[in-house]
Specification:
By secondary structure, this protein is of the alpha/beta class. The chain is 16% helix and 25% strand. The strands form four sheets. It has a six-stranded mixed beta sheet, with helices on both faces. It has a five-stranded mixed beta sheet with strand order 5-3-10-7-8, with no helix packed on it. A three-stranded mixed beta sheet has the order 6-4-9, with no helix packed on it. It is rod-shaped, with a radius of gyration of 29 Å.
């Protein structure tokens, strides 16, 4: 899913370095005609390494460079000199990145900590020089080991955004407006469905200089778990949020039904999502009087706490922050 500089899915080719050859050198020196074997070992090939970087939030840097090749190891030489190790290739990735085998779709690694390093492909070992093979019965071995080949393959790198609170709702439910009001984020806002085509992150300032991270996930439609609309592209981002804030507008025809559809899409995508803490916010409620609010309360879904908020009129937002902070801690 790509919009502008936000990239959360990329396919790369990587190959680690081949190990250097061992040397089959025999020692020669003035007055020493037969000095015996002294060939050094080959150096190892370079690794392909993934490193977590907390300052990154997209895979955009991999959009135009998708082939990574590490350096081969140097060959061994005389006087038991070992060849140099091939230079490693380090690929920085944002936290929340998963790496899949492009052929089998199997998840191989997950990067969730800053400075965490994962060796995606190990470089080949260097071959041993001939001095390793010297024995009482073979004092001048004229052979050495070749280096071991590196590894190669295609990999899919996907980003699942790490945030404390994920906003869940239909397109046009007011998620971007809420994020723009309670954080410094500047998401695109307009009066039509699918304004948001990429997840937006914002830091919510709370009391006593505390804060938490909120993610505006693009709107869900019925059938999203099967890939309809923007389906799989954004449902995976919800997996990493510890708390889910369901946002349904007050002018919705049936709040309870909308909530059930959203819940069902999450269940079909990944049943474990239903184990997360959930809170329901009725947005755009500045248009309601007390009587209408009481009527709506009678029709709200059971088993989830609900709050009435208005991003535009700044109503109920502090109460919402308090409740979310309480749930997160």
């Amino acid at each position: 899913m790509t919009e502008g500089n936000f990239v959360d899915y990329i396919k790369i080719y990587a190959s680690s370095g081949k190990g250097g050859r061992g040397s089959a050198h025999l020692h020669r020196e003035k007055y020493i005609a037969k000095g015996g074997p002294d060939g050094g070992d080959g150096g190892r090939g370079g690794h392909i390494i993934l490193r977590g970087d907390k300052n990154m939030w997209t895979l955009f840097h991999l959009k135009f460079k998708r082939h990574f090749r590490a350096e081969h190891g140097g060959d061994g030489s005389s006087s038991r000199s070992t060849g140099h190790d091939g230079a490693d290739v380090i690929i920085p990735v944002p936290l929340g990145t998963i790496i899949r085998d492009a052929d089998t779709d199997e998840i191989l690694h997950e990067v969730i900590e800053d400075e965490q390093e994962i060796i995606l492909l190990e470089g080949g070992k260097g071959g041993r020089g001939n001095w390793h093979f010297k024995s009482s019965t073979n004092q001048t071995p004229r052979y050495a080991q070749p280096g071991i080949d590196g590894q190669e393959g295609w990999y899919r790198i996907e980003l699942k955004i790490l945030a404390d609170v994920g906003l869940v709702g239909f397109p046009n439910a007011g998620k971007s407006t809420l994020l723009s009001v309670i954080t410094a984020a500047k998401p695109k806002i307009a009066d039509y469905a699918f304004t948001t085509l990429k997840p937006n992150l914002g830091i919510v300032e709370y009391r006593n200089h505390q804060s938490f991270v909120m993610a505006d996930i693009p709107g869900i439609i019925e059938g999203a778990a099967e890939g309809k609309g923007l389906g799989h592209h954004f449902l995976r981002h919800i997996e990493r949020n510890s708390t889910l804030l369901f946002l349904i507008p007050a002018d919705s025809e049936d709040i309870k039904k909308e909530y059930e559809i959203l819940l069902n899409e999450l269940r079909k995508h990944n049943p474990e999502l239903l184990d997360k803490d959930r809170l329901l916010a009725i947005s755009k409620s500045d248009m309601l009087d007390d009587e209408l609010k009481e009527e709506i309360k009678q029709e709200l879904p059971e088993g989830i706490e609900a709050l009435f908020i208005s991003s535009v009129a700044q109503q109920g937002l502090m109460e919402l922050k308090d409740k979310l902070w309480q749930m997160l801690n």
